[in-house]
Task: structure prediction
Amino acid sequence: MSLNPVRPWRNIYRRKSRQIMVGNVPVGGDAPISVQTMTNTDSSDVRATLDQVIRAADVGADIVRVSTPDESSTRALREICRESPVPIVADIHFHYKRAIEAAEAGAACLRINPGNIGDEKRVAEVVRAAKDHGCSIRIGVNAGSLERHLLEKYGEPCPEAMVESAMDHIRILEDHDFREYKISVKASDVFLAAAAYQGIAEATDAPIHLGITEAGGLTSGTVKSAIGLGNLLWMGIGDTLRVSLSADPVEEVKVGFEILKSLGLRTRGVQIISCPSCARQGFDVIATVAELEERLEHIKTPISLSIIGCVVNGPGEALMTDIGFTGGGAGSGMVYMAGKQDHKQANADMIDHIVELVEKKSAEIEAEKAAAE
Ligand code: SF4
Result:
């Protein structure tokens, strides 16, 4: 990312990692931090799984993971990979044959721990399939499923055990001359996950896949992920992420983007800055923001929009946003464009008006971008 010379306190210095490809999405190096999610449909149901992949891609998912526990799901994977608008990661545990089938079916990446596949011959076969089909691999260490010998050595899941597990898996891939891998060291405990990620970030230059596993439902999981992933990203650690929620994958993608947007690491779509509202509000801020979020979901161009209840904070916030609306008296408010007062607008049809302004602004920006290219 480019550094901010005017506001150096906003700079995040990303850890230098090497870059790999997950299909056509670069992960690591100076590539944008990608957002992933995972389907929760029956993977052998092509239509249901594809629908979920497409819905996730529509809200910005760069990569989607699909679990492939059996042969019928690796068979279905072929069509899913062919029709998917984004690269598909096949999630495999233990069964090396599923990994080979998934690579043959067109998976862009295999999530598999080489240490769990079995003997040397099986590892070699999986690595060969990955190389032959241009797949990368994600080594996914999880505090909840650490190898027995590491639990015996360390007594309980701890950052050192997770890093050692990851390094053991890395060594196996490197011994097979395979370097197209990324790593995750997930835990449901934010302290454990954050410490393990810091450890692995120092131990290797491989790209890092961030996640707080089993984070919880929409609200609690969002908070936990924002704390865990947010801190790591702020430290410059992380090249791709998945927010794990017991919720619709679409929500995971939205939360992932919001975390990145809050840190200025990615911009996508409309970023609404709104006040919590109080007795001073000149219009119903909460209902307005809820409706605007829904009606502006289709906008992909990064645009900032401030929706503020009154003049206490409205003009100040509008200064820093592309479009702003500040509530006033007598059923109307002020519209700001690029920080400057532009025109008055009646509250009654303010939402339609703002949607129109944002769509127009988005079209202008896209046209300028196309002309520049
Ligand atoms: S900006 Fe105005 S309406 Fe919004 S919370 Fe502050 S004082 Fe209340």
